[in-house]
Amino acid sequence: MITSGCLLLADAVVTVVWQEPISAVLAAREQQTLERQLRDPRVVRRVIARRPLPGDAIGRIRFPSLGEAHWVVEGTGLDDLRKGPGHYPETALPGRGRTVAIAGHRTTHGAPFRHLDSLRRGQRVIVDMPYGTFVYRVQRTQIVDPDAFWILRNVGYERLVLSACHPLYSAAQRIVVFARLVARRPPVIKQQGR
């Protein structure tokens, strides 16, 4: 019983300081699967045609100021977000001149958006897609209610919206980072056969 108690306490400490360790291991495997999926010509064709299926790998999101990068999945359902950050299917994919929205966890399943609150105005967020690389600059961060679906609206320019539960260890609110597209570059994700 002492050993069990010590293990439970250690798990709680690791979760508070870093992230939930068991789901982190599972999420790391899912991230590798998503990376491999983007080598599958069928998946790449669907993404390039802007018609990915739920659960498809669609690209990678990078946070240079945080030193982090995560593979992105199509969809924001529970199973999707266990794999990594998920693209809201009701929003555009990068390069369409409209709102692009991505959600992610902060404490479980690899905690890809754990440090979303560390992003500051002007910092870059880069989204790599098979058809191009899209550079966004953070405009602002805002705390909203969970039912604030206005964040997904189109605003007349290409905007990236990143959302996660807030505060840490709670789903009471959402932290939302808004960023504006500032550059489009050639793709860095290599397609099969190229």
From TrEMBL:
Pfam families: Sortase. It comes from the Bacteria. Keywords: Hydrolase. InterPro entries: Sortase (IPR005754), Sortase_dom-sf (IPR023365), Sortase_E (IPR042003). One of its GO terms (molecular function) is hydrolase activity. The keyword Metal-binding does not apply. The active site is at 105 (proton donor/acceptor), 165 (acyl-thioester intermediate). The keyword Hydrolase applies. Transmembrane segments: none annotated. NCBIfam families: sortase_fam (TIGR01076). This is Sortase family protein. It comes from Thermoleophilum album. The lineage of its organism: Bacteria, Bacillati, Actinomycetota, Thermoleophilia, Thermoleophilales.
